[in-house]
Amino acid sequence: MPDTLRGITIPWAALPDTAGLLEYLVRDDVLCWVRRDGGLAGFGEAARFTATGPERFRAASAWWRTVATGARIENHVGGPGTGAVAFGSFAFSWTSRHASRLIIPSVLVGLDGGRGWLTYLTCDPDAEVSAAAAEAALAGWLEGVAAGRAADDGDRLVPGQVSEEDYRAAVTAGVERIARGELSKLVLARDVVAELASPVATAQVLRELAVRYQDCWTYAVDGLVGSTPEMLIKVDNNVARARVLAGTLDRANIRKRDGESDADYAQRVLAGSEKQQHEHEIAIDSLTAKLEPYTSAMTSHSEPFVLQLPNVWHLASDVTAELGRGGGPVPSSLELAEAVHPTAAVCGSPTELAGALIRELEGMDRGPYAGPVGWTDGAGNGEWGIALRGAVVESPTRVRLYAGCGIVEASTPEAELAETWAKFRPMLEALGLRG
Ligand SMILES: C=C(O[C@H]1C=CC=C(C(=O)O)[C@@H]1O)C(=O)O
């Protein structure tokens, strides 16, 4: 347990009008959670917690509750994301060797609906905690910002642990198991590795993702980076929200009818597909069933809508749930993330069987891919996305990208393989690579 966490949050008007938080994505070690011009950017590390195994969420929640309850914070702003905050990333599987982690930044800049704040946090009992100390600490972190990087002819993309051939074989085996009636859906993933001729410019990658994928949440936590379209769970006071995605159509490979608009094409081919609707239905049912015990009222669209991203269209459903069933305690965002992870959008249905089959057929450790990534504050508010469309920076010149697809009985290996390439595209483009 760290020494008592102390800190201060002050209003921060020094957020440039044009680029907002993007102006702070200038260090390769930045912690970030950004969507459009809002979110959080963190620097440095006041304390961290790590855990592996089936108790990783519970242990992290207990640690955070103790730290946040004992914290002495002068909060001059108030509201979600102010005061004590930790960024986090959790391994997809309880079997993973990858350490799940919570990181309390030393300095954090937040922006929500035009309202900005600056937080300074420390476990050093001798540190001065004041508005001046907060401003000086931020200025220190913004000195000597990271250089950008141009794509290099020496950059290469090489197969990861699951080759294209392995992936096709895994999909074939998955479809067989579904056809035998063992399960209804399985999400199978693979990886590719970017070997770069010069060190990756993470801050530049984040800025590119944030600018291009404005409907997504761009994240960076300790080497895990990406831009996810899927919100596992957001808690804002007594309300939880989720965005469930399943069902995908590549925008780079359109075969429109004469006179058909892009939107009509997506509506016909994606929303009109029984296979895609079935895949989506399983994902939404899994989320709502897992959320049910915590909520007194839940609403979602009766039909999924088509979400357009620069690389793909998805079938999407937004869910809103009032928390605190029967006046009982309101769960924290981290507790809810544990309760709903893994949904059928990244695992399958039924969950346990799908999880075991993923381990058998993929044969790779997913690490933090498809696990919760995001932040929590001392009041339990927070946002936990699913770490999709992302990568792990394994060394300055080695970046591992992950992508997966929901497999149902009607899936074909070739189409699912092609879909993984569409899902790698955001990171490949941000790294200056081609698939
Ligand atoms: C598992 C991934 O995407 C999920 C989220 C949206 C759509 C999906 C699909 O259509 O297969 C996947 O369930 C991934 O991007 O690696």
From TrEMBL:
Main enzyme class: isomerase
Source organism superkingdom: Bacteria
Presence of keyword Isomerase: yes
Keyword Isomerase assigned: yes
Catalytic reactions on record: chorismate = isochorismate
Record's keyword terms, sorted: Isomerase
Stored Gene3D superfamilies: Anthranilate synthase
Domain Chorismate-utilising enzyme C-terminal: 164-423
Family indicated by similarity: Belongs to the isochorismate synthase family.
PANTHER family: ISOCHORISMATE SYNTHASE ENTC
Name assigned to this protein: isochorismate synthase
